[in-house]
């Protein structure tokens, strides 16, 4: 037979465990927000051109949204050649890396085609293999 005092202790312990879990979650949330903020600042000012080489007309806007949320400046274009191409990230400047975009968009190929006169730092080609 449990007394009221034992029930109160049990309730306090459960509430305490919830509070500890909530605080841990808040700490990891704060850490995640800090990391996201740092990523956005790091990517700010990097000009990306997204070239859609697929027949999926809504795809470039989804890619644009994903990149812009992460701080990139994005332009979108269409390649009308209709030849089959694979997705690739092309680094046009030697001071930028396509690694963040690779992780964001799950495009595994990165090439470097340096062109100091390019108005874009990175070009993302969306090919038929993109999903």
Shape: elongated
**Percentage of helical residues?**
40-55%
Uncertain residue segments: none
If you average the pLDDT, what whole number results?
83
Number of strands: 5
Q: The biggest beta sheet, please? A: 5 strands, mixed
Distance between the termini: 61 Å
Number of helices: 3
Strand order of the largest sheet: 2-1-5-3-4
- Amount of beta strand: 15-25%
SS class = alpha/beta
Q: What is the CA-based Rg, rounded?
A: 23 Å
What string gives the helices and strands in order?
HEHEEHEE
Question: Summed up, what is this model?
Answer:
By secondary structure, the protein is of the alpha/beta class. It has helices spanning 4-43, 59-69, 99-105; strands spanning 47-52, 73-78, 88-91, 110-112, 122-126. It contains 3 helices and 5 strands; from the N terminus they run H-E-H-E-E-H-E-E.
């Amino acid at each position: 037979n449990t007394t009221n005092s034992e029930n109160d202790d049990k309730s306090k312990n459960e509430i305490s465990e919830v509070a500890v879990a909530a605080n841990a979650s808040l700490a990891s949330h704060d850490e995640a927000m800090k990391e996201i903020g740092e990523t956005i600042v790091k990517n700010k000012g990097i000009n990306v051109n997204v070239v859609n080489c697929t027949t999926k007309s809504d795809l470039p806007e989804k890619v644009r949204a994903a990149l812009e949320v992460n701080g990139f400046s994005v332009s979108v274009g269409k390649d009308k050649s209709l030849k089959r191409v694979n997705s690739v990230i092309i680094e046009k400047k030697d001071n930028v890396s396509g690694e963040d975009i690779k992780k964001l968009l799950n495009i595994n190929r990165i090439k470097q085609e340096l062109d100091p006169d390019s108005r874009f730092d990175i070009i993302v080609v969306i090919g038929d293999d993109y999903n």
